[in-house]
Design brief:
Elements: E1 11-15, H1 18-21, H2 34-39, H3 57-70, E2 75-79, H4 82-85, H5 94-109, E3 113-119, H6 125-128, H7 137-153, E4 159-164, H8 166-174, H9 189-209, E5 218-224, E6 227-230, H10 236-259, H11 276-280, E7 286-290, E8 294-299, E9 307-309, H12 326-338, E10 344-349, H13 359-362, H14 366-384, E11 389-395, E12 414-417, E13 422-425, H15 427-446
Parallel strand pairs: 1-2, 1-11, 2-3, 3-4, 4-5, 5-7, 6-8, 7-10, 10-11
Antiparallel strand pairs: 8-9, 12-13
Helix pairs in contact: 3-5, 7-9, 8-9, 12-14, 14-15
The structure holds D-gluconic acid.
């Protein structure tokens, strides 16, 4: 791959999220999030596992950030646990602020750009008790939380992501019930989406009004965008199903965010109030794209949505998803030509490898190297075409708690032995570290 395609200041990074790595579920005043509650529900998570301890990053953060440095990362994307900062409604917790402050300061010391995700799914339980994202009042709580965190770290942190994957929050959490809060009420999905988007727009406005002059601030949102195809392109019903899925995964977010309108089937709902759409359209500095795979969509009259995602075809990469690196090019190229987006960060891309369930087996992960390499080739293509991509974040820095799959799926560049909490850098981690370093050498030798 032509290494020099990537600009000098490209953000080579890896990502994590609070609930998936921290543990410390009830330490230092933190109260339950909806994921703490959901994990206690019998049958919700594979092997009844929980994030109570996870990879104990709450205690091992120093060692973990040292690993990020050893991997030559230039950026690290992590999320803040909302109930660590606001353990009760309207009540702040300095211990939570101090925890993330240490992380930010250490990253800065290591010259690693900190990128904060404000909401990576761990809504405080007390807000779910009010109806969660189906209740418009929660919008204000999010704005208060985002504003408070921004105020604390704004002098140090440049990149902010309000929400991670609202599609997943709304659909898996409120319709399919396989993620927290485990609700199966598909009729709530458009309302939940609307409140997520509104809270995003209002938080951006509030954060902007406090933007410091000495540090550039960039605020965006992260969407999961898959490449979408009809399972059988000869069948009209599959084509219709694929179009519907695409409308729900793309248009439902991108249109209000970047064009200030909902797709026609969504624009007349009673929960949309005058002015909401303008607030949602508040300009962002970048879009985060999480790309993993393609989805083949089949019409399915038994499903509330009218479609289902076909099981991936057998491949040597992952049993969860198809291996389709061209998709990252196709998806980003398409949205770049359809919407005016100033900057794009690939905020997640990664794979769990097949049949690797123990930490030891995982270390020789040639498949993961291939996965990253093939996706980066496509990212290089995008950059050559002039698409403004400023960073790539592998998901994930560590093996960690993979939501409903528990600890079965290992996505990390670093393996974790869940019994001893021992970290071992995988071959893919070494590979990426060398790739980043070789790029740095190349640029230095030119200048
Ligand atoms: C996501 C999720 C991550 C997952 C990853 C692998 O944003 O999709 O944020 O938390 O672990 O996508 O499924």
């Amino acid at each position: 791959m032509k290494n020099s395609v990537f600009p000098n200041n490209f953000l080579w990074g890896a990502a994590t999220s609070a609930y998936q790595i921290e543990g410390g579920a009830s330490l230092d005043n933190k109260t339950d999030s909806i994921w703490d509650v959901f994990c206690r529900k019998k049958g919700a998570i594979a092997n009844e596992e929980t994030g109570d301890i996870a990879i104990d990053h709450y205690h091992l953060w120093e060692q973990d950030l040292k690993i990020a440095k050893d991997l030559n990362l230039k950026a690290y994307r992590f999320s803040i646990s909302w109930p660590r900062i606001f353990p009760e409604r309207k009540k702040q917790n300095m211990k939570g602020i101090e925890f993330y402050e240490k992380i930010i300061d250490t990253l800065i010391q290591y010259k690693i750009e900190p990128i904060i995700t404000l909401f990576h799914w761990d809504l405080p339980k007390y807000l779910q008790d009010l109806g969660g994202w189906a209740n418009r009042d929660v919008v204000e709580d999010f704005v208060e939380y985002a504003t408070y965190v921004f105020d604390k770290y704004k002098g140090k942190v440049k990149y902010w992501i309000t929400h991670n994957e609202p599609w997943v929050v709304a659909n898996l959490g409120y319709a399919y019930g396989v993620h927290a809060p485990g609700i199966i009420s598909p009729e709530l999905v458009p309302k939940v989406n609307h409140h997520l988007l509104l809270s995003h727009g209002l938080a951006v406005q509030s954060m902007r009004s406090m933007q410091p002059s000495q540090v550039e601030t960039k605020i965006g949102i992260g969407l999961n965008l898959a490449a979408i195809f009809p399972a059988n392109s000869q069948l009209e019903k599959d084509r219709t199903a694929a179009n519907k899925f695409k409308l729900e995964m793309y248009d439902q977010y991108l249109q209000p965010l970047f064009k200030g309108k909902y797709p026609p089937n969504l624009d007349n709902k009673d929960f949309i109030r005058a002015g909401d759409i303008e607030d949602i359209k508040t300009p962002v500095d970048f879009l985060g794209v999480n790309y993993y795979t393609k989805h083949n969509i089949q019409s399915d009259s038994n499903s509330y949505s009218g479609y289902k995602v076909v099981e991936p075809s057998p491949n040597s990469f992952s049993s969860m998803w198809d291996f389709y690196p061209e998709g990252i090019f196709e998806v980003i190229n398409e949205i770049h030509s359809e919407y005016t987006i100033k900057e794009i960060l690939i905020t997640e891309n990664g794979t769990a490898c097949n049949h690797k369930t123990s930490a030891n087996e995982e270390v020789n992960d040639n498949q993961r190297i291939k996965y990253i390499e093939e996706h980066l080739k496509q990212v290089a293509r995008l950059i050559c075409e002039g698409v403004p991509i400023s960073g790539y974040f592998y998901w994930s820095l560590f093996d960690n708690f993979e939501w409903a799959f528990g600890y079965d799926k290992r996505f990390g560049l670093v393996s974790v032995d869940y019994l001893t909490q021992k970290r071992t850098i995988k071959k893919s981690g070494e590979w990426l570290a060398q790739f980043i370093e070789s790029k740095r050498r190349k640029i230095n030798s030119v200048t």
